[in-house]
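Good morning C.,

I know you're traveling, so I'll keep this short. The sequence:
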Amino acid sequence: MNYLYLMRHGQTRFNLQGRIQGACDSPLTDEGKEQVRAAGRYFQEQSISFDKIYSSTQERACDTAELVTGRTDYVRLKGLKEQDFGAFEGQQEYLNPPLQGDIGYGDYFVTFGGESYRDVRKRMEETIGGIMEEADNQSVLVVSHGAAIAQFFRQVLTDFPRVRMRNCAILTFTYEDGHYDLQSIVDPVNKETLYQKEGKEKEKK
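The tokens, ready to paste straight into the viewer:
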């Protein structure tokens, strides 16, 4: 059995400014770096170490991967990037359309040169699936982005939690025979368990 730890990056300048940030990039803020360090402490307290580390190619994810683990021997993959919001990139978040239930923004951004939710789901499932198929009873860290992570778990889980991805949120999955089983979602910054699989002992606060 393999373990997948799927993590969102720390707070960025655009997060702080309330700007739409998908294909475009901005650096981690000082607070964002502190959030990542809190995630690192969580992994240490839980005695979690990683056999392999993967990150989106975007700076905010790469910096998070390096800072949370103290390592640089990770693999950067474009398939883990955030959803492309087309002409809306860098604009204020209040311009986002209403969320469409379980499909996020749906195909709204396609008209403006962005990605559809189906395209994001497909590339995330293929990329992470390839990672997990290569693992052999290993523990894997994958650092990605809020919308991309949400579309991934909506794709691979039949009954998925309605949880918004906070900065540095950590999703813990087991993976065996092509099947993902979500164990928990933890916010290490605020020391909150956002989701816990029934019958599993709660994470330490």
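Safe travels,
E.
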